[in-house]
Input
Amino acid sequence: MPSALPLGDPAPADGALPGSVVDGADERHFGVYLHVPFCRVRCGYCDFNTYTSDELRGERRADFAGQAIVEVGFAGRVLRGAGLPERAVSTVFFGGGTPTLLPVSDLAAMLAAVRGEWGFAPDAEVTTEANPDSVDRDSLAALRDAGVTRVSFGMQSAVPSVLATLERTHDPDRIPQVVAWAREAGLGVSLDLIYGTPGETLDDWRASLDQALEQNPDHLSAYALIVEEGTKLAGQVRRGELSAPDDDLMADMYELADDRLTAAGYDWYEVSNWARRDPDPTVHRSRHNLAYWQGHDWWGIGPGAHSHVGGVRWWNVKHPAAYGDRIRSGVSPAAGRETLDAETRRVEAVLLRTRIREGLPIDLLDAAGRRSVAALIADELVNAKAALAGRVELTRRGRLMADAVVRRLLE
Ligand SMILES: C[S@@+](CC[C@H](N)C(=O)[O-])C[C@H]1O[C@@H](n2cnc3c(N)ncnc32)[C@H](O)[C@@H]1O
Ligand code: SF4
Output
């Protein structure tokens, strides 16, 4: 079951943005997120905004690309109406759900609409998420031809029993196959892994890391399993059918991942993300995700998608049928919005930038926050050398405790 949306203020039907969004816009990148809210089946742990065919209340997957293209045109008009400068798109991300459940021609049409509306920056990064069992050699080549530059496969684990607990439907042997096809097509490759699945041992996790590394991906994400309320997994844990993930084991798993990935030539650049160091530590980072953490601008297209432009944040209605109704009526699909004041923006910048390798400029902290950095250095959670140079950067122990650190910095 997808989680609930934030409350916020009502969003205007014409989507109009306040003039304040123009301030500093030249210094911010502009990205586009396209949310494709469909999955063949729902994995037991997932509360993303995604729907199987019998949950669509009469809405049709086949109509989705056309609706998203209408929102692209709407976004272009709203951004120009606010007086924002013309900015070419630096990054595009198809997320889900399972974008690759749609025919490649639909993804290509959405991408062409984005390009037509704003143009692409010369080195634009275009990513799609993909389930290993929803692509083949031809579809990957066609994605490359359409302008996709990298693909992020939901591998999750190499161990059949772990995949079964997660209710993943793909065969782990398919991973080397789809990675080889993606490479043949000239696509960059990222793999998503999950650790801390009930019953998963440290040896299981080591095997998954090793098999992921054997594929020599450009980028890897390793997420600690979150038992999201309302999911089938949460029910199984509540009833005692599965054990809850153990915090100490999760910490060991994180350390093992960081050791193994660092030794294999990958550097962390965000708490859960590593990029291949060669030929340069920044080349293989996901610039789209970095833009979220660095507070750039992006428009989120599709049901439940979130957007942020110059301190105004909004989110679309969640269900594809509600989204389709809004688009057919020619009104904004936004369900709510909030305008962040300077203090909220500062606090959010601290929260987001604490997660990334570059850390944050120390002057983003208020006096109490700066004082607590000294205590965090003593606890070895913050890199002392960086702090002397005016930046707050987490050590590995700090990364492990990122959430707790953020709370203390803000006390
Ligand atoms: C939209 S999915 C990726 C694309 C595709 N739907 C798939 O699952 O292969 C994004 C990623 O979020 C992660 N994820 C989803 N639910 C999670 C949870 N409850 N805890 C940790 N990671 C989760 C998974 O690693 C997944 O690959
Ligand atoms: S395939 Fe991905 S988005 Fe779909 S239910 Fe599974 S984890 Fe969630």
Summary: The radius of gyration is 21 Å. The chain has a mean pLDDT of 94. The chain has 15 helices and 14 strands.
